[in-house]
Amino acid sequence: MDEITYAIKIAPVDITPYRDGNTGIPYFTTFDSGFNGPHVMITAVTHGNELCGAIALDFLFREGVRPICGKLSLGFVNHAAYHTFDANDPAASRFIDEDFNRTWGEDVLDGTRNTTETRRAREIRPIIDTVDYLLDIHSMQHKSVPLMMCGPLDKGRTLARALAAPVEVISDAGHAAGKRLRDYSFFGDKNASQNALLMECGQHWEVSSVDIAKESALRFLRHFNIVSKEFIDRHLSATPQPPQRLIEVSGPVTIKTGNFRFTEIYTGMETIERAGTVIGWDDQEEIKTPYDNCVLIMPSRRLDVGQSAVRLGRLIDWPD
Prior knowledge:
- With 320 residues, the chain is an alpha/beta fold.
- It has seven helices and 14 strands.
- It has two domains: 16-235, 3-Layer(aba) Sandwich (Aminopeptidase), CATH 3.40.630.10; 250-316, CATH 2.40.50.630.
- It has helices at 51-62, 79-82, 106-109, 116-128, 154-163, 207-223, 229-235; strands at 28-32, 39-44, 71-76, 133-140, 147-149, 168-171, 195-203, 245-254, 260-262, 271-272, 278-282, 285-288, 294-297, 308-316.
């Protein structure tokens, strides 16, 4: 199967002005309004090759965003990986030692694993523990429509619907290889009020990913009324949005062997009409769609043992 390559149409912004922050945690800044309200956080560069989130946070800083109630925190998560970005080998900066977004299980954070990413996760954990609502901005390997990853719980689905964009909302439980930041602790507890969303803004290096990242951040801030209406109106388009769709992931296809391959190049959101259609092989095992009209979500090019090759989903109704 031929490898897909993409042109790099955006450039990383300089985030070193935000290194010191004001929280005691490098690259994390909190603005406190002095008035009662939630602690809202927006994070970027959980993966170092995902540039759009960093550009969106830089935009908010430069535009002087400030909360009118509660607290607003902006954080550059895996800054070490981000600073290794090289346009000649852009995928290499995804992480230093391991995928940061598989380190958020309590067993990992409280354990002895010692990598660049686990050390950073433990460093930022104290501020994450104070957050009420989190938006974690990401982008994707392939050209794809934007996706909001809302988790498996009704509270995540409801929050995603309240933002009214993007069209595609994906409800899933995460990855077999480890827990994501958006699923950490109380975010993944149906009885907790804290809530989180993970926004996939399109292909990593497309200009449109930056526009989507900014729009998503602004919609998130608007929903919680944490910044002034004037700020939102100045930067957020009033263009009506198409109706959203909610797609529930029935499960990931987890890679078992070092010989996984797809039947063809899938880039994401393909709908496979017939149950039982072979979409790939894991060595000699056929990988088939389990039901009619199966949606292929975020097929991966990193086909490593234990990782998700693709997630399979179907359209469902919104919670009441």
